[in-house]
Amino acid sequence: MLKFFGQLLLWIRNGGFQLLLFAVFIFLIWGTFAPVGTIVWWLDQGATKLETRTRELSQRMNGGDDSSDTTSGDISCYIVFLTGVGDTSADQLSSGEEAFLDQLEQDQAQCLIVRDVFPYSAANQDIAGQQIFEYLWNVTEEADGWLELTQYLLEFRNVWRMAISADNRYGSVYNQAIALSIAEKMEQQQPIPSSRQQPIQLILMGTSGGVQVALGAAPYLAQWLPVEISVVSFGGVFDGNEGFDVATHVYHFRGKRDWIENIGGIVFPSRWRWTLGSPYNRARRQERYTVYSSGPHEHEGDQGYFGKEVAQDDGKTYIELTLKQVKELPIWTFASQGENFARKNQH
Fold first, then answer.
1. Average pLDDT over residues 254-270
2. Between the CA of residue 190 and those of 70, 113, 152, 179, 193, what are the distances in Å?
3. Disulfide check for 220: which of 179, 191, 195, 211 has CB 3.0–4.6 Å away?
4. Alpha-carbon distances of 187 from 49, 57, 75, 112, 229, rounded to whole Å
């Protein structure tokens, strides 16, 4: 934490103070209007869609429709990846993120990977599909020197969506919407088996604010689907309330040079050690929350968790360090056991 404050003071001393004031002003203005999109979605179509789709899911998972079971007997695991606040679309993952998921798909053949959930929209709509942000992006892309500022503005927008997920006033609506998007994308990949005696392994992976959204969606996914949920965080920024009571385990990777990851532990009281009754601290005491020092990673970029630059003298890249540690997690043992169970019960 001292290192975090030291870096912040150095940045301010080097001329970042005016930019910081401007950023705070924009951040607060944006935050005032951030819940509006979620409320409009809820009133326009969200409430009806949630009620209809969750009822359909419940009926099928409880035996009302078992037509999908004959085609999905080998499925024992879904991996859902939720991107960080720096991305504007689930279809525009960084090359490092794509490479990471491609390697997981190759190594874990029993798992289906869902890549196309955008965690910063209740309607699962990319920023480019929202008129005001599309206009902002097009205008500033043509203005030399302003593209980086535009990226910051879009990140502010996503940060506030993450904050809605952690908000006890609007979070329930927002997190249900994301959970429904996850369930629908899982079904599109391949229908979720509904008649298994052993639950499907659902591994929610996220970076930055995507981890908060994953944790927020977890209770609803656990309620709707026959799944056992694990959460894997790469530099995640999250509060200590949602998701920890239903997740079997939360694995958090922390880079030595990732000072942004510290923010969650500072701003959310539920993450403070003396908030003994918070779900986060209960999970920590019950050893259902594990922190790994992933290596010399930064929060994002070429030296981030999915960076392709060389990180060590032996030639290993940042993404290879991440992959090595992810492959050693015990979740793959559980997923393989589920695959063996499914094949056994087919015969």
1. 94
2. 11, 10, 36, 17, 9
3. 179
4. 16, 10, 12, 11, 17
Q: Are 205 and 81 in contact (CB under 8 A)?
A: yes
| DSSP 8-state code for residue 45 | I
- Which two tokens mark 345? 């019960």
Confidence band for 23, pLDDT divided at 50, 70 and 90: low
The candidate with the shortest Cα–Cα distance to 121, out of 213, 12, 223, is 213
Tell me what the mean pLDDT of segment 326-337 comes to.
Answer: 83
- Do residues 321 and 311 touch, judged by C-beta distance below 8 A? yes
- Residue 95's identity, in one-letter code, is S
Buried b (16+ CB within 10 A) or exposed e, 18-48: eeeeeeeeeeeeeeeebbebbeebbeeebee
3-class SS shares of the chain: helix, strand, coil, % to 5: 50, 10, 35
| pLDDT for the residue 171 | 79
Count CA atoms closer than 13 A to 103's CA, side-chain side.
Answer: 14
The DSSP H or E segment spanning 340 is helix 331-344
Q: What is the pLDDT of residue 36?
A: 53
Nearest Cα residue to 173 out of 19, 42, 345: 42
The amino acid at residue 107 is D
Contacts 24+ apart (CB under 8 A), 45-50: 46/122, 46/123, 46/173, 46/177, 49/180, 50/176, 50/177, 50/180
pLDDT at 341: 41
Tell me the whole-structure pTM to 2 decimals: 0.82
